Structure prediction request, 769 residues.
Amino acid sequence: MFQLDEEQRLILQSVREIVQKEIKPQVATLEETGEFSWDVLRILASNDVLNPLLPRQYGGVEVSIFTFCMIVEEIARACASSALLLITQAEGTLSIVLGADESLKERYLKRLAGDSQVLIGVSVIEPNADSDILSAPAKAERCGDHFLLHGNKCFVKNGSVADFLVLYANVDRSEESHGIHTFLVEKGIPGLVNKRDEDRMGMRGSIYSEFDLDHLVVPSENLIDQKGGGFSNSLKTLSASRLFTAAQAVGLAQGAMEEAISYARRRAQFGKSISHYAPIQFMIAEMATGIESARLLTYQTAFLFDRGEWKKAETHAAMAKLIASDTAMKVTTDAVQIMGGYGYMKDYPVERMMRDAKLTQIFTGTNQIIKSIIGRNLTGMS
Amino acid sequence: MFDQTGFLPTKKLRDFQNKIQQMAREKIAPQALGVDEKEFFNREVESLLWDHGLLTLTFPERYGGYGKGRTVALCLAVEEIAKVCASSSLLLIIQAVGSFPIIHGGSKRLKQNYLPQMSKGRKLVAYLVTEPTAGSDIASIQTTAVREGKEYLLNGSKCFATSGGVAGIYSVLAKTSEGNGNSSFFLVDRESPGLSIGRTESKLGQRGSNTTEVFLENVRVPAENLLGREGEGFLMAMRDFDMSRPAIAAQALGIAEGAFEAILQFIKERHTFGKSIGDHPAIQTLIADSATLIEASRGLAYRAALLNDEGKNNTKFASMAKSFAGDAAMKITTDAIDAIQVLSGYGFLKDSQVERMFRDAKLTQIFEGTNQIQRLVITRQILKESM
Prediction:
């Protein structure tokens, strides 16, 4: 059903080589320090892998969403943090592609072309204010030819290392969530204060920053969605990022299963390899079955995006994110279990994968919220 | 016979539990995040545990032991401490596990010599059984003990030794002959020439506990350091499990209760915003399921502990308790992160206690026999009973 064409095959093959040769060897250090790896950025950028979705007219490769998902999966198989770097770039790129006018696209998308190392920081979209009690949602006021932004933004992906940010802010509070507008904000301008980077349990090679927006002046032309539709575009971007998270979770689970199988074959107890024992085989059987079903739903969803079936894609993306992240959590937890004491130690990658997997159940909407979305979309109830 | 918590038969035990609870909350809880983050063994907590007699609970009474009901007492102490810091509670468990072969296998003279040294001299014990190629399969250990006159000569490598680098005394399992029934325990002093500590492991969780390799290279011990008779090692390790598995269950129970308390606290705080999050169906399921798993874990853990104190066979219940409570703790802590994430957005971050509890819980599914091995033990016991 999912046959790769020659171009896809070549892309994936080269991504696999880069990841295995250049990225995998440094994953452990990356994770230990919890710092951003400029080296991984350089490797991805110099191999043209950082912005696969960038449209051709702005100098990009413009692969399909399906191909992009497979690239994310391949990278996450070795390093979820590095895959997150691509996902964040893609989210930022999609926000601009979907909403911005031509001059804004020219100005910003061209900066991503070729072996550019320009990074986009993306703030978390919070359409459900209920899940956001700690930070006051950022507010934007129109003042003549510019906007004035106030408030606090937490969990800005790539925040402190980005060159420019895609920020969501409410323009007119009376319109509730539909008043969400998207802004492109240059880093380093006054009023944009990087408070701190969060210390996280997993995906420690990626950056999550908190910003204060203190009388931040953004020129009007940097408003994406000049003609309105900001909310629906941000929902499309959010759906796409759920799909990408699903692809990341599938790759993560695949990587953990491969580690567990290879260990189970090597490890002998009671006179034979533990891969002979039924409890181990059952765990591996459940892993593989879970991964294959999550992968198929993820690919199916990617096709819906490529065909522009946004409405259906939204529910599918939520379902793919739910099953793939829950599968990744179970697979990585069982991978640690199969590897026993060794799995629990930092010398082996599966304990990291288990911590990374937890984040896939949480970001782009916790799985509890994701279930509400699926339920609402299917029943038509709000 | 029991009060509402199910298994607190005496006032003495209740008072004991209350005292530990207070001590844990006041003195152990505040350091839990720090030891996890820096991954270091906290000697101050160790002193505190000695002060409260918690590292000699299973010793004979005249050497500081709790006396009748010692397994239940050990479990209560472990549970209360694990609610706030699993690493600190592990120290109690490994002390009981490591001293078991000495208490139950040492000669009168050996005990008179060592038990006062350990209790008054505050010496920790490590339990050297696991080897790189011998985990659950204890019988396949490669470490050897060869009798030479009035001594044994020990050679081998041990790994994943809890308290390995901080102990003063080691209970070492070694092969004393070829074939079945071939292993025996020995008491080895830290100062023995030839004993060396290998590297300290870096772990996913329970990072405040010390886990190391220990090497034995031509270590000579007096023949009277043999614990039990030659060939009794495997049996003694199995009997040790009957005590340690209920204790691991109590640890898992404590971790689960700690995470559950954190969820409840968040829900109560949410009430102050004027909206009852407790009305949300997903939260109701989480609360109801977690509370049920906790009570079921408690029932199994203390039933297994009580049977052990009564001198009855508890192997089946010990394995049931250990695997059930470990799986429950894993589920509850996994869900707790999500719940707190939904409520506050902060479940995944390092300064939330639940992400540590989640990492700590995973170990309870692994050590003292993986939960897969426990199922094997349970089934064997049931088939044996039905013969």
User: Anything to note?
Assistant: The domain at 125-231 of chain B is CATH 2.40.110.10 (Butyryl-CoA Dehydrogenase, subunit A; domain 2). Chain B has three domains: 11-120, 125-231, 234-385. The longest strand of chain B covers residues 151-162.
